[in-house]
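Reviewer 2 asked us to include a model.

Predict the structure of this chain.
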Amino acid sequence: MAIIVDQNTRVMVQGITGKQGSFHTRQMLAYGTKVVAGVAPGKGGSKFEDIPVYDTVRAVLQEHQVDASVIFIPAAFAKDAVLEALEAGIGTVVVITEHIPVQDEMEFIAYAQRKKAVLIGPNTFGIVSSGKCKIGIPPNQFFMPGPVGMVSRSGTLTYEIAGNLIAAGFGQSTAVGMGGDRIVGLTFIDVLKLFEADPETKAVVLIGEIGGNAEEEASVYIKEMTKPVVAYIAGKSAPPEKRMGHAGAIIRRGKGTYEGKVKALAEAGALVAEMPSEVPEMIRKLLA
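Predicted model (structure tokens):
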């Protein structure tokens, strides 16, 4: 069992012939993901790595069954691509694109909610059901089957901690990238609830960062969880009022501080690591 995606998930790539889309499609195929079609306006009828390419999502759905779509479309056009997928009834949409205007994000996230679709991102690394399906951009070598669920606002920190877990002998059930923007589709709580119900997941690693209140909100649900949670919060030394990499990683008016997030998570019963390298040993103790 896996959350959201598994070995049977049929994936469509919007922007399959672009620089990022083509590179990461090859990596997804190498991981074993079932990529059934691509979309690239003006290139319908061609093929990429033996995958048929279509001009529109509707054209894809006339020929293929699709469970999930991944968006590798430049920010200026990303909203239209997301809305096209959602309007066509795609149940899971993964938005890799960063620098999408907030107004555009608000529009397509609200539409996804009305359609009861799962929207991951934007500005996300995607999702990996280890050994089964990868939709997005994570390096293949860091994700192997195991008992640890991961949910994160940061791609690079996820890869680092996943690599540390693999080196310590712990694979992952599923890794989900919430995305680093101020507003996102799936939240920490959404994913934690899925992990709580997933029999393959025995412990959860939550990777957060300064800014916003997503981690504080997550701590309310963590109190109710039966599965142990290890958390790591990035940005301990970040200066106030300065955005650190992600649009959502900024402390304003004393809100979203490192100290506040650590306190809320610890009070909820999570173990909070000060360094990414501490996470595997904490997991080892919890699963002993």
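The mean pLDDT is 94. The chain has two domains: 10-120, 138-287. We have added this to the supplementary material.
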